[in-house]
Design a protein that fits this description.
Layout lengths: L14 H6 L10 E8 L6 E2 L7 E3 L1 H13 L4 E7 L16 H12 L4 E6 L13 E2 L2 E2 L1 H18 L3 E4 L6 H11 L8 E6 L6 H7 L19 H13 L3 E5 L5 H10 L4 E5 L1 H12 L5 H15 L3 E4 L2 H7 L3
């Protein structure tokens, strides 16, 4: 019925009414907090481009994970910065590597917190690319064996979830086969299925010391103009055995989040990446935005687009703001 019989503002009249009819809800339980663990660190090292975020020693990561858990956030996502790098990134599959140490320490201290291990070689290679090089190109198939070896090492350390972010073709199948062969058939895979070659990763590369020494990652990460291809990537990962799929970044790709959510029956994650975080923090520091309102609106938009899981550096602040 048309106005005046229909008045849309009736259900917006009071806070209680608005809360009652809200279509999309955001809670601490929807969030994942990324942590950067640095092998050579003795104390937290603030990341200039990401105010409030630091590289942490293993003990610092354990303490941070405890704060995350106390706020009702169910999971952390671990990235490692090794003390030494090489051409293949062998530190990634070292059973005594920085991420493996952090996984074990966090699991021992906080057994009810979900530990997700990011799986990529870029932080561990001297050249900063996400796989084995053949000339100046990443050799897709040679990289698969190393990714699978790393997944097994992370699972052996106690990772609850393995999250490959490299964007090699066939990596989910290779990782699933390796995990199953080693008795880790119950360890799920959260695939970075639609990871775009984005300008919004800049602060992360400072944080993880993973800037490519030459070239870029456009030959393996997705072209920002391609939405249909993102759905194909997600469906391919589903067929290869992924248990969850991810779109990265989040805010510039909300349409892709929706398309992937509609196309798959799996839980969908979206990564609210470092550049998105830095952008909001800078605007709020300048007094141009209200931080609480802007962050919660941004995170709610990611949920509204179809994400079941939101990976975000805002997780701790958001969890505090969302408390009853």
């Amino acid at each position: 019925m048309a106005f005046p019989a229909t008045r849309m503002r009736r259900l917006r009249r009071t806070p209680v009414l608005r809360e009652l009819v809200r279509e999309t809800r955001l809670s601490a339980g929807d969030l994942v907090m990324p942590l950067f663990v640095e092998e050579a660190a003795d104390a937290p090292s603030p990341i200039e481009a990401m105010p409030g975020i630091s590289r942490l020693p293993v003990a610092g990561a354990v303490a941070e994970a405890g704060e995350v858990h106390a706020l009702g956030i169910p999971a952390v996502l671990l990235f490692g910065i090794p003390a030494e790098k090489d051409e293949e990134g062998s530190g990634a599959w070292d059973d005594d590597g920085v991420v493996q140490q952090a996984i074990g320490a966090i699991r021992a201290a906080h057994p009810d917190l979900l530990v997700i291990a990011d799986l990529c070689l870029c932080e561990y290679t001297t050249h900063g690319h996400c796989g084995v090089l053949r000339g100046e190109a990443v050799d897709n198939d040679a990289t698969l064996e190393l990714l699978a070896r790393t997944a097994v090492s992370q699972a052996r350390a106690g990772a609850d979830v393995i999250a490959p972010s490299d964007m090699m073709d066939g990596r989910v199948r290779a990782i699933r086969a390796a995990l199953d062969a080693e008795g880790f058939e119950d360890v799920p895979i959260l695939a970075y299925s639609a990871k775009f070659a984005s300008a919004f990763y800049g602060p992360f590369r400072e944080a993880a010391d993973s800037t490519p020494a030459f070239g870029d990652r456009r030959s393996y990460q997705m072209d920002p103009g391609n939405g249909r291809e993102a759905v194909r990537e997600a469906l391919a990962d589903v067929q290869e055995g992924a248990d969850m799929v991810m779109v990265k970044p989040a805010l510039p790709y909300l349409d892709v989040v929706r398309r992937v959510a509609d196309a798959t029956d799996l839980p969908v994650a979206a990564y609210n990446v470092s550049g998105e975080y830095a952008m909001l923090k800078a605007a709020c520091a300048a007094g141009w935005l209200d931080e609480r309102a802007a962050v919660l609106e941004a995170l709610t938009s990611i949920r509204r687009a179809g994400a079941d899981i939101v990976i975000t550096y805002h997780a701790k602040d958001a969890a505090r703001w969302l408390r009853p």
